[in-house]
Specification:
- The chain is mostly helical and about 325 residues long.
- The chain has two domains: about 130 residues, Peroxidase, domain 1, CATH 1.10.520; about 140 residues, Peroxidase, domain 2.
- Helices cover about 50% and strands about 0% of the residues.
- It has 15 helices and two strands.
- The protein has a two-stranded antiparallel sheet with strand order 1-2.
- Helix 6 crosses helix 7.
- The longest helix has 25 residues.
- The termini are far apart.
- One of its GO terms (biological process) is hydrogen peroxide catabolic process.
- GO terms for molecular function: heme binding; lactoperoxidase activity; metal ion binding.
- It holds the Pfam family peroxidase.
Length: about 325
């Protein structure tokens, strides 16, 4: 074998070595992804999911706001730096404390803090905040009426906050279909995944500033495309968000069933009652309309697509080895 190698020309040896390096890198990537497992804590913290579920149940009894807030936390976390709980890091310059996105829910942050404390009391320095967030997200979706799905575990927590990159990583309320598809594609997600994940807007609220341009023609402002809005709904929303609206005023993203995780979101889009332009465009654009219609008519299909998309979302940017840690407190690095 050694003599055959020596008989090869230098260029042939270089090509073979390059091929071996590629194979090793692919194997390393597969190994990294394989670290995520449904039974990751089976021997080290077997009750972790029950512990988190108990905290979720208690918190949702106090306020439903924690449900959409936690789902939003998980989505933001995975999209910004990967699913590493970096969105939870507080302090100067971080997302939920410095104004990069002031809509992250204090109730959701409190839920994760409580869940971490409950887990630490039983399994100290064992379960990452990233995994606790993933479990809690599944549980708030399920307890709000959505699907109960298995969660892959084994993530480590990141060591860097999100402020520096958050604005360039998340979809905006005025995005069109091409912009949405491009952003989701960079994270390995398809158009169907994007439409299914958008269905998370079946619960929760949004602030007036995210859709006020759809309600009033602003003089001197740069024209922006805005999908059609139901006229009666337009008048209703003008009552909710007048020109002198308060920055704290919110409106339900799904006015039909705002406290239930169902396919009502897609039905509101069919009625042209989507608040955000980036939501309504999913029905307005013919390339995505058929998927909206399908999910609106078939809740099981929506749930199945949502679960599949959440699994893919939960694998984005997973930290392993020296790239991450298990934080003792979720709001700060060790």
């Amino acid at each position: 074998m050694k003599s055959r190698w020596l008989q090869l020309r230098p260029r042939q040896q270089s090509l073979i070595l390059a091929a071996v390096v590629v194979v090793l890198l692919l194997a390393a990537a597969q190994l990294s992804e394989a670290k995520l497992s449904r039974s990751y804590y089976a021997s080290t913290c077997p009750n972790v999911e029950a512990l988190v579920r108990g905290v979720v149940t208690q918190k949702l009894q106090e306020t439903f706001n924690a449900a959409p807030g936690t789902l939003r936390l998980f989505f933001h976390d995975c999209f910004v730096r990967g699913c590493d709980a970096s969105v939870l890091i507080s302090g100067p310059g971080d997302e939920h404390s410095a104004g990069a996105d002031t809509t992250l829910s204090p109730d959701a942050l409190d839920l994760i803090t409580r869940a971490k404390a409950a887990v630490e009391a039983r399994c100290a320095n064992t379960v990452s905040c990233a995994d606790i967030l993933a479990i809690a997200t599944r549980d708030v979706v399920s307890q709000a009426g959505g699907p109960l799905y298995p969660v892959e575990l084994g993530r480590l927590d990141g060591k860097v906050g999100t402020k520096a990159v958050v604005k360039h990583s998340l979809p905006g309320p005025g995005n069109n279909l091409d912009q949405l598809n491009k952003l989701f594609a960079t994270n390995g997600l398809t158009q169907t995944d994007m439409i299914a994940l958008s269905g998370g807007h079946t619960i929760g609220v949004t602030h007036c500033d995210k859709f006020v341009r759809r309600l009033y023609p602003f003089k001197g402002a740069k024209p922006q495309y805005s999908p059609p809005m139901n006229l009666a709904f337009l008048r209703q929303m003008r009552g909710t968000c007048p020109l002198n609206y308060s920055p704290t005023t919110v409106a339900m993203l799904d006015a039909a069933t705002p406290l239930k995780f169902d396919n009502g979101y897609y039905q509101t889009l069919q009625q042209q009652k989507g608040l955000l332009s980036s939501d309504q465009v999913l029905f307005a654009d013919r390339r995505s309309r058929s998927t909206v219609n399908y999910f609106a008519a078939n809740q099981t299909a929506f749930f199945d697509a949502f679960v599949a998309a959440m699994a893919k979302l939960g694998r984005i940017g997973v930290k392993t080895g020296s790239d991450g840690e298990i934080r003792r407190v979720c709001t700060k690095v060790n």
